[in-house]
Each structure stands twice: as C-alpha cells, then as structure tokens.
C-alpha cells in the first residue's frame, strides 16, 4: 500500500495552491521564529505584570538591581546601548545570511 501524498491531503481539504504554499512555508520555515516571537511576547507581558504588582518577595531583588546593576542613569544607558547595538548586529547578520541560505537551498533543487 502506498503512502498518501501530502499535496493530495491538502487538495482534499480544499486548500488553494497559495494556501498550500503558505502552509508549507509556515511548517518548514516559520514555525520556530513564530514560537520565539510568541515566547518573547509572553515574557514581556509577564515582566510587565511583575513590575506593576507590588509583591513583597520582589523587593530584595529590586533593591539589589538598583544598588548593584543600575547604580546611575549613565550606567543604565550604557547597558541599554550595548544591548541594543548587539541586538541590531545579530539581526542584520541573520537577515544578510538568510538570502545566502535560500540561494544555496534553491541550488540543491536545480539540476
């Protein structure tokens, strides 16, 4: 007995060619980035909720961070500047390597 073809399964569901392409792109390429973005959004919402709540068990941590990590506004600015620069660098490297990876993958499928 032969295995069912994935394209046949999509055709039986009534998906158009464009819908099959979007589904394939999401399942092969976009699942991990979407999960990472979702995790970051969840972390942002959690951190916002923790910061707005006045819970007593967070006071020692806030005191430690204010005394040791963020002593002055200049130090905080420097930390944020370094983090922003590194994030922009990583993003630019990722987006510059992505077309190369797509080109190499496309080269595998041509004869």
Please characterize this protein's 3D structure.
This protein has helices at 6-12, 17-52, 59-69, 73-109. It is an all-alpha fold. It has 2 domains: 1-53; 56-111, no CATH class. The longest helix has 37 residues, at 73-109. It is elongated and about 60 Å long. 0% of the residues are buried. The mean pLDDT is 79.
Summarize the entry for a quick read:
82% of the residues lie in helices and 0% in strands.
Largest sheet: none
Could you give the distance between the termini?
31 Å
- Binned, the helix content reads over 70%
Principal-axes shape call: elongated
Number of strands: 0
Oligomer: single chain
The radius of gyration is 23 Å
* Secondary-structure element order, N to C: HHHH
- How many domains? The number is 2
The number of distinct helices, counting runs of at least 4 residues, comes to 4
What average pLDDT do the residues reach? 79
Runs in which pLDDT lies below 50 for 5 or more consecutive residues are: none
What class would the helix/strand composition place it in? mainly alpha
Fraction of residues in β-strands = under 5%
Question: How is the topology of this model organized?
Answer:
Blueprint (H helix, E strand, L loop, with lengths): L5 H7 L4 H36 L6 H11 L3 H37 L2
For this entry, give a set of tags.
0% strand; 111 residues; 2 domains; 82% helix; mainly alpha; elongated
């Amino acid at each position: 007995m032969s295995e069912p073809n994935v394209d046949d399964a999509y055709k039986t569901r009534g998906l158009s060619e464009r819908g099959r392409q979007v589904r394939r792109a999401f399942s092969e390429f976009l699942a991990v980035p979407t999960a990472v973005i979702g995790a970051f959004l969840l972390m942002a919402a959690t951190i916002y909720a923790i910061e707005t709540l006045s819970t007593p068990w967070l006071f020692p941590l806030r005191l430690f961070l204010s005394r040791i990590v963020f002593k002055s506004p200049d130090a905080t600015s420097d930390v944020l500047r370094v983090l922003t620069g590194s994030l922009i660098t990583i993003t630019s490297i990722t987006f510059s390597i992505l077309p190369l990876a797509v080109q190499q993958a496309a080269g595998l499928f041509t004869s």
